[in-house]
Amino acid sequence: MTSHEIDFTIHGDDLQAVEIELDPQETVIAEAGAMNWMEQDITFEARMGDGSAASSGFLGGLMNMGKRLLAGESLFMTHFTNVGVAKRKVAFASPYPGKIMPVHLGHRGGTLLCQKDAFLCAAKGTSVSIAFNRRLGAGFFGGEGFILQKLQGDGLAFLHAGGTVVERHLQGETLRVDTGCIVAFTTGIDYDIEAAGGLRSMMFGGEGLFLATLRGTGTVYLQTLPFSRLADRILRLAPSQGGKARGERSPLGNLGRLIDGDNY
């Protein structure tokens, strides 16, 4: 199924929204809860499936539902359609600070593998399914786990990532990456994990126990601020049961309160 040809504009810098312009009867699919605003004549409907040929029919919809359950995603995807006679716009935004990344799947071999929560929206005709990681080590320790999202089609798809997105083109090279920094990669890339140096480096290096290794020829998309890293920092500074932030119990925390004029 040929994907709908959609136009788009990305607004903002670090808290971005993508505004998609739909011709009459054009449709964009999105994860539940991603929509920010829409103009008149845009209707939306939650459906089991992405509307592609791979998910059409009862059996296809049932298989797609099972895959989304395994991936930990919502059972439904929302279809936004322009039912009017003039062009209309609908906008989507990511759930945390970062960048929205447009990818033309037709220019990336028709298939892109991405982490489970990276997909934001895509032109109708894009197949959104899952791919199992065949390597046991990468499944347990690779951050993305056994299940990756697989996007297939010939049109536009939009991913979101934390911080800034860096695009790397590998030509038979190897790139070692923090496991949480991977957003997506093309099918020519082989994904695995390896230990992060010696035992001392693994325990005290601050880079985790494992690094992801990306080898082959293709394109890799990386994010500079994985949401897990941001959430970990917020939790560290969250107030404890006594009402004080955990960091305030340290000598540096006490010094900071004195400088700020807080004597309690």
Description:
The protein is of the alpha+beta class and 264 residues long. It has one domain (7-230): 4-Layer Sandwich (Double-stranded beta-helix), CATH 3.60.160. Helix content is 18%, strand content 43%. The protein has helices spanning 57-70, 136-141, 199-204, 227-237, 251-260, and strands at 7-11, 17-22, 27-31, 35-38, 42-47, 77-82, 88-93, 98-104, 111-114, 119-123, 127-132, 147-152, 156-162, 165-178, 182-186, 189-195, 210-223. The strands form three sheets. Strands 9, 11, 12, 14, 15, 16 and 17 form a seven-stranded antiparallel sheet that branches. A six-stranded antiparallel sheet has the order 5-6-3-10-13-8, with no helix packed on it. A four-stranded antiparallel sheet has the order 1-2-7-4, with no helix packed on it. The longest helix has 14 residues, at 57-70. The radius of gyration is 21 Å and the shape is globular.
Which superfamily, in CATH terms, is the homologous superfamily? Mitochondrial biogenesis AIM24
Extended strand count = 17
Distance between the termini: 65 Å
What is the general shape? globular
Unreliable spans: 136-145, 255-261
Share in helix: 10-25%
Number of folding domains? 1
The structure class reads alpha+beta
Task: Fill in the CATH topology.
Answer: Double-stranded beta-helix
